[in-house]
Structure formats: C-alpha cells, structure tokens
Specification:
The chain is of the alpha/beta class. It has helices at about 15-25, 45-60, 70-75, 80-95, 110-115, 120-140, 155-165, 185-190, 225-235, 260, 270-290, 295-300, 300-325; strands at about 1-5, 30-35, 60-65, 100-105, 140-145, 170-175, 195-200, 200-205, 210-215, 240-245, 250-255. The strands form 3 sheets. Strands 3-2-1-10 form a 4-stranded parallel beta sheet. A 4-stranded parallel beta sheet has the order 4-5-6-7, with helices on one face. Strands 8-9-11 form a 3-stranded antiparallel beta sheet. Helix 4 (about 80-95) packs parallel to helix 6 (about 120-140), helix 6 (about 120-140) packs across helix 7 and helix 8 packs parallel to helix 9 (about 225-235). The radius of gyration is 19 Å and the shape is globular.
Amino acid sequence: MRIGIDTFTIRDLNKNPYETLDYIKGLGFEGAQFGGIRSLSPSLDTGELKALDDYAKSKGMYIYTSVPPLDPYLHGGPYGELKEEIKRQVAAAASVGWKELHTCVNGGDARYSSPEPWSEHIDAAIRLLLDLGGALRDCGCRVNIETHGAETTFDILRIIEAVGEDICGVCLDSANTLVNAEDPVLAAKRVAPYTHLTHLKDGLVYFSQNGIMRQGKPPGQGSVDFEQVLPILGEYSPDLPLSIEDHKWLFEAKIYDADWIRANPDLTPYELGQCVRLAWEGWQKIQEGALPDPETYEAIPYLDQMEERLAIGRDHLRGVLERHGLA
C-alpha cells in the first residue's frame, strides 16, 4: 500500500498537474488521485496524458483520475450526451493504462434534498452503467463509486450487484461513511472485496442539536479506527492506493429526525448505535479539553494548517501500515 493525496485537498494552491506531482512528492507522498481527467488534458489528448503518466512514473508515483458522476438527474442535459462523454473519458484513460477510475453517483445531498426519491437516482445510475458496460469492458476499465455523501456503502453494493464487479467497484471515503451514520469499520467490512480506490479521511463525530456532527480531521485525529480499517482493506487489496483527502467543514447527520431515518432504510439499530458510541467518545474528548472546540478550530483557515495536517495523516497511516505488515 502506498500513501498519496487526492488533489482536491490542495486545490486552493492552483498548481498545474506537473507542479502538483512535484509538490506532493516534496511532502513525502507517493501518488496523486486527480479530479476529472479533462483537468489533466481538456482535449483528452493521449500524448499529453501519457507524458504526465511518464513523469509520475519517473518519480515513482501513481496517478488515478475521475470520470463524471453517474446520475443523469445531476447532468441535466441529454442522457446520450452524458453517456458519450463518459465513454470518451474512459477511452482516454485506458489509452495510458489508467484502468481504475473514480466517480460518484450524485456528489451532492440529493438523498435528502431531491424531489425524486433517492432510489430513482440509484436506478438511473444502474441504467447508465449497464449502457456503458460494453465500453468499459472493451477498455478493461472499472468505475469506482465513492461513498461521497449521498451514496452509502449499501447503495454502491446494490449497484455492483446489478451491473457486475468487473466494471464497478468502490472508492471508500473512510470518513464520509459517518455522514450517513455508517460505522467506518462496519462499512469497510462490507465493501472491502470491491474497494480499488480510497479517500483516506478521518472525521471526529460528536453530539449536535439535531444528531451527530462530523468534523473533518487528518488521519489519526478523529473517530475512524485505521488500525482496524486498513487490515480489512489490505486482506483483499494489498496494493491498494491510500489517497488522503483532507479538508475542513462540518457535516451533520440528523439522526433525531424521522425523515432522515426514513431516508436511510439500510441503517440498522446496531450500526446507528456504533456511531452514537463514537459521538459519545468524541464529545467526551472535547468536553475534557483533549481536543479543541470544533467551531473555534474550524475558524482557522485550512491553508494555515494544511501541511501540518497532511504530515500528521501521512505519519499515522505509515505507522499503521508498518504495524500490520502492509507497507
């Protein structure tokens, strides 16, 4: 397992792809998971993409990239337009050997805010993937759906079952699971056999007025137990890239609200209880002064702490890998 960075983390530095690789390497990381492939080459030029891949390999670094979200409701334009655009991006990625691609279903909070039932968004993503199946198989590519915010591990497993694990897998965001009150360890156990990409993120959960709040933290400073999560993932994917995605922001899981509970029909009382336990532990640490007040900490600009946070996460994950023979 190698530790890199998802470039969303450093987006405010406004570096080009080559500068991004240099910067990440200078911080002691081993790869970059970029956003959309058109951010690397707006024209999807194979030569440009290959040159960047060669540059990364010369530094001993990995590259992964993304294709557009799979929700036609989010796209808003003609269905065929979205399908053909994803086909073009998949073909461009395959031309340089990028076979594991990141994506999401919606990327927003449609689970709770969309006028259409969330199940319709999942069904629409399944239909799109079935239509893309031939192109993905011809290219030898797989799209890995992130546990982004609206998407739970249960949703992604439902999609994989419908379309096939050869063309669809998981990008596990280890802290986004908490946004929907999924316990990170239980979530990892569910999706480990299908996880090919990651956003290694930590989140501190604690009690809020409407349920539990999740504060973004660097790995090792939140509620995600990487001592359990990484060995679970490593059992199935010993070469899994571990891309830290770090940022601030507070997200609330409104577990006291009946509508919120109805929007999460897969969530069991036991798993909800595990998240409440984590929230209790986080709340105690805040009350005892072992962790700073979340709102006070959030007020500090992220860029003022970014490199320190990345170093904390890098070193914590390296220690876990070494202790479990996964480095």
